[in-house]
Structures are given as structure tokens and as C-alpha cells.
UniProtKB/TrEMBL annotation:
CDD domains: HemeO. The keyword Metal-binding applies. Keywords: Heme, Iron, Metal-binding. Transmembrane segments: none annotated. The keyword Cell wall biogenesis/degradation does not apply. This is Biliverdin-producing heme oxygenase. InterPro entries: Haem_Oase, Haem_Oase-like, Haem_Oase-like_multi-hlx. It comes from the Bacteria.
């Protein structure tokens, strides 16, 4: 472990390590087209469906990890998104939204990896937890704003509830607290390095989902 890694807070390390991939995800063709208003609500719906599979994997595994020394402190009920995604999907797909719902191959792979970590490697689960929830609390708010404007959802209403954390009044301070949890994570240097690697993996899994969504929805303009 180099001197920088030994003295830099873990929350900074993990952010720096995924910075490049964050830009890649943010500027992926699918995201750019979606946020640029170049795709229809069907593409937004398909994207929301993929999120449901990912969050189901994250949150089904959460309860068993509550007492885990590594992942336990990160499990916080105010973050849970499955119920919100289900309300959004009922709005987008109708009451029988579950019927015929299938993940894209990249989404199935992503969800499987999350489940695998949840069941067998709690530090790896932390990497996935960080990648999704801290992102949703940050860039997610930009996506919500664009979605409301592009497809006419009510502000913070059905269709965009996934992006609304009703029980987190101050996201900036919540994120500060979350970074403190990362800095205090119960893992040695080698394990921290493995968490960072898993975070990069998590970003790659997200980018793969965007790639498949991009193939399914080439820009209409
Ligand atoms: C167009 C899509 C996206 C936009 C506009 C966006 C934007 C942002 C912004 C503005 C921040 C705040 C940076 C800060 O607090 O200094 C952020 C942080 C973050 N984003 Fe994104 N993001 C997007 C996509 C993603 C994706 C796809 C992921 C991964 C699944 C992701 C994961 C994260 C994470 C983990 C952070 C927290 C970084 C940290 O402070 O440790 N973002 N994003």
C-alpha cells in the first residue's frame, strides 16, 4: 500500500478510484440521450425496470446484514428504494407492472453479483451499497429534475419517487455521515483495496446496463 493510500481517508480513496468510471457512466450514450430529452418515456421505463432488479437484490440481502460488523452500519431504512420503485413502475407500466418484467442480461449479471456479495462477502456488498445509494443521493437529483421536465411527471411524484428520499431531510449532511461510515469501515488495508476493486466492478456493471439500454433505444433524433 503506498503512502497516499495509507493516509487518505477511505471515502476519498473510493471516490477517487471510481472518478473516471463515473464520468464514463454519466456521459454514456444512453444517459446523455435520456437526460438530453432525446428518448421517450418507454426508455425511461425500461431503465427504471432495470433499477428494480438491482435494488431488489441490494435490499433483499440487507436485513440479514444488519448485524454484520462490516456492512451492518450501512444498512439504513431511509435509503431503501424497492417500495418507491414499485410505485413508479405501477405508474409507468400499470397495476400489473410485474407481469412479463425481465431484466436485461447485463442487469441480471449485476443483480447476481450483488446477491453473491450480500450472501458471501459483506465488504463487497458495501462497495455496491456505496455505488448506488451515494450516487442516487447526488446525481439522482439531476436525473429526477430532467425526468419531471421531459416526461411531465409531477414534481417528486409517481414516476420519480425512486429519486425522492422522504426520510432524508438533508442529503448533504447524510452524505457526510455516510463518508464517516466509510472511513470507519471494519476492514484492513487489503480488504479496503478489494472493496475499491469491487466498486470499480460495480461501475462497470452499471455501464454494461447502459450499453444494453443504448442498443435497445438508439436515439430517435
Ligand atoms: C447522468 C448520470 C449521473 C449524473 C448527472 C451524476 C452526477 C453526480 C454528482 C453531481 C455527484 C456529486 C459529486 C459530489 O458530491 O462531489 C455524483 C456523485 C456520485 N455518483 Fe453520480 N451521476 C450520474 C451517474 C452515476 C452512476 C450511473 C453511478 C453509479 C451507479 C453514480 C455514482 C455516484 C457515486 C457513488 C457518487 C458519490 C461520490 C462520492 O462522493 O463518494 N453516478 N454524481
Amino acid at each position: 500500500m503506498d503512502a497516499t493510500a495509507a493516509t487518505t481517508p477511505f471515502s476519498t480513496l473510493i471516490r477517487m478510484a471510481s472518478h473516471e468510471q463515473h464520468t464514463e457512466a454519466e456521459t454514456s450514450t444512453f444517459m446523455s440521450d435520456l437526460l438530453g430529452g432525446r428518448l421517450g418515456v418507454v426508455a425511461y421505463t425500461r431503465y427504471t425496470e432495470q433499477l428494480w432488479f438491482v435494488y431488489r437484490a441490494l435490499e433483499e440481502g440487507a436485513e440479514a446484514l444488519l448485524t454484520d460488523p462490516v456492512a451492518g452500519p450501512f444498512i439504513q431504512p431511509e435509503l431503501m428504494r424497492t417500495a418507491e420503485l414499485e410505485r413508479d413502475l405501477a405508474h409507468l407500466r400499470g397495476a400489473d407492472w410485474r407481469r412479463g418484467l425481465e431484466p436485461l442480461p447485463a442487469t441480471a449479471e449485476y443483480a447476481d453479483r450483488v446477491t453473491e456479495c450480500a450472501r458471501g462477502w459483506s465488504a463487497g456488498y458495501v462497495a455496491h451499497h456505496y455505488t448506488r445509494y451515494l450516487g442516487d443521493l447526488s446525481g439522482g437529483q439531476i436525473i429526477r429534475d430532467r425526468a419531471e421536465k421531459t416526461w411531465g411527471f409531477a414534481r417528486k411524484g409517481d414516476g420519480v419517487r425512486f429519486y425522492v428520499f422522504e426520510r432524508i431531510a438533508n442529503p448533504a449532511s447524510f452524505k457526510r455521515g455516510y463518508r464517516e461510515l466509510l472511513d470507519a469501515v471494519d476492514a484492513d488495508e487489503l480488504e479496503k483495496r478489494r472493496i475499491v476493486d469491487e466498486c470499480r466492478h460495480a461501475f462497470a456493471l452499471n455501464t454494461a446496463v447502459f450499453r444494453e439500454l443504448g442498443e435497445a433505444f438508439p436515439r430517435s433524433a
